[in-house]
Amino acid sequence: MTRIVGVHGVGNFDRYPSVDDAAIDLAWIWQRALLDHMPAGTVDLRMAYYADQVRPAPSLAAAVGQQLSGANFGQLAAWADALGAPSDAGRGHAALPPFVDWLAKRKDLDNALVRSFVTTFIGEVDRYLGAAETRLAVRRTVEAQVERHRPDVLIAHSLGSVVAYEALVARPDLHVDLFITVGSPLALDTVVYDRLPHDGEDNPSRRPNVGRWVNVADAKDLAAVPRSLAARFDVDTEHQEDLGLTALPSAVDYLRTPAVGALLATAA
Fold this sequence. Notes:
By secondary structure, the protein is an alpha/beta fold. It has nine helices and six strands, in the order βαβαααααβαβββαα. The protein has a six-stranded parallel sheet with strand order 2-1-3-4-5-6, with helices on both faces.
């Protein structure tokens, strides 16, 4: 039996009866995706669920996908730079509409879908990295699940890769044999990388206590920029995939890739 802990990315909040129900349901979705690689009954997957802690306040729920706060505009500009957006997209207080229009046209995506993703991504990343109490609580959610389940493999998607990285660095006693990051924005300037804890030498990229760290990024993933983490983090292996999908691959899309299947075969 291969024990796995999953750490989800942005956009996973739903109004389940309880946080436990949400975690169980999302773990079931991930585990079904892994059936492409591993026979039923050979995987015990638990989810470190934190979406309830980074969702907007209830009074702002109707605004999700509609607007950004003033504090987010610098992050939006840095993301636009990383994606190669033209100078009239992603900068200034009227930045969002032209950035969304440019992304939607470039990636052949629905404008409303892109707007929702951009605001959700920037918003949840900022709610995690921008509030010390939330950051600690979310990190401890991951630490607690790893401590309880003692996984052979930790798989972290999108913002979850940031949380998982910080949790493992903060708790080196929580050794994991295989750490898989998928669609990770860890190296994204200003939005993530510059907000990680530094060691006094302007270098936040400490090695977590893992046997192997493998990063998988899709060539079109809007969140995984830059695709490679190796220039800034001590990863062991990287796989740059072309899933043949949209620029918004889900965790399930990554879990079904041959690269992830091959990795899990070595952990079984």
